[in-house]
Amino acid sequence: MRERKGLGVNGWVMLAIDIAIFAAGVWLLIRGIDDGDSSKIGIAAGVLIVAGAIASGFVINPPNIAKVVTFFGRYVGTVRRNGLAWTYPLTLRERVSLRVQNFDSETLKVNDANGNPVEVAAVIVWKVVDTAQAAFDVEDYEDFVKIQTETAVRHMASEYPYDAYESGQHSLRANADEVTTFLHQELQDQLTLAGVEVIRTQLRRLAYAPEIAADMLRRQQAEAVVAARQRIVEGAVGMVDHALEMLNAQGIVELDEERKAAMVSNLLVVLCSEHHAQPVVNAGTLYQ
Fold first, then answer.
1. Core-most of 6, 89, 167, 271, by most CB within 10 Å?
2. Does the pLDDT at position 212 exceed 70?
3. Which is more confidently placed, 255 or 69?
4. So what's the pLDDT on residue 74?
5. 127 and 171 part of one domain
6. Can you tell me the mean pLDDT for 125-148?
7. Which of 179, 208, 237 is the last residue of a domain?
8. Among the three residues 184, 208, 232, which one is the final residue of a domain in this structure?
């Protein structure tokens, strides 16, 4: 089912025409009664019926509201004209909102790609773009959006780990743009059936479940410490290498391999230690 444009003409013009027809019917009825002419009364009755049928075709559409028109169960078109409009008489009209809407999903507990329970929630910005699909292809398009959003959020969370522990691995926490793009595409594929366009998706909440949050925090802290230590060691090795090069280039002191090893060991201890080094003055000779 696809939307098609329905009849929607200027309602004020049709109102003037309808009033004129109604007035003519009343005038004919009065003349028929005064003259005792049953033919005039019959014509007047027909004219008044026509005026009533025309009156049944008036609709009032606020901005960004459409009316889906059906005639004895058959879809005949959608009226998007705002204000007072006139469409097919003797028809049923279903109101469909064309406004941009937000849906804030509930916080869901889902197992991520590593099997860890995480809490995730999303905000979806959407609107109806095909009124016929929204009205006829699904039972209730607003409920359909809510259910499909929760399904897509669960699927998205199960496809990525919360944190990446391997090089090149994508995660929910570190790759927000990719994750929301995945969720957006997943939702759009499901909601196209209901004539809905997904405008924007955004994660509102992302956290480990309370039962494992403390353990995962300690793991993150440990990984941060390891990463910091690796950075410190890399910097210390560079500084030691630079110091040895300068001593050798300027000829300040000549060191054999054993003394170089001792110096490297002492410098690394000083540079990598968490505490300030305590200076020791060596008053002896270079070699014992």
1. 6
2. no
3. 69
4. 93
5. yes
6. 93
7. 208
8. 208
Residue 287, in any domain of the structure = no
Give the total number of structural domains in the chain. 3
| pLDDT tens digits, 223-255 | 556 666 677 777 767 777 777 777 677 766 666
DSSP string over the chain: ----BPP-EEHHHHHHHHHHHHHHHHHHHHHHHHHT-HHHHHHHHHHHHHHHHHHTTEEEE-TTEEEEEEETTEEEEEE---EEEE--SS-EEEEEE-S-EEEEPPPEEEE-TTS-EEEEEEEEEEEES-HHIIIIISS-HHHHHHHHHHHHHHHHHHHS-SS--STT---TTT-HHHHHHHHHHHHHHHHGGGTEEEEEEEEEEEEE-HHHHHHHHHHHHHHHHHHHHHHHHHHHHHHHHHHHHHHHHHTS----HHHHHHHHHHHHHHHH-SSPPPP----S-S--
Whether 278 is covered by a domain: the verdict is: no
Given pLDDT bands bounded at 50, 70 and 90, which one contains residue 163?
confident
**Residue 58 covered by a domain:** yes
Q: Quick one: 87 and 172 in the same domain?
A: no
d(CA 210, CA 217): 11
Structure tokens at 104: 């804030």
Where residue 201 sits, what CATH number does that domain have?
Answer: 3.30.479.30
Is 0.70 surpassed by the pTM of this model?
Answer: no
- Inform me whether the pLDDT recorded for 45 exceeds 60: yes
Q: Report the C-alpha gap between 190 and 149 in whole angstroms.
A: 9
**What are 77's two structure tokens?**
């078109």
Kindly give, in sequence order, each residue whose CB lies less than 8 Å from that of residue 154, ignoring residues fewer than 6 positions away. 108, 110
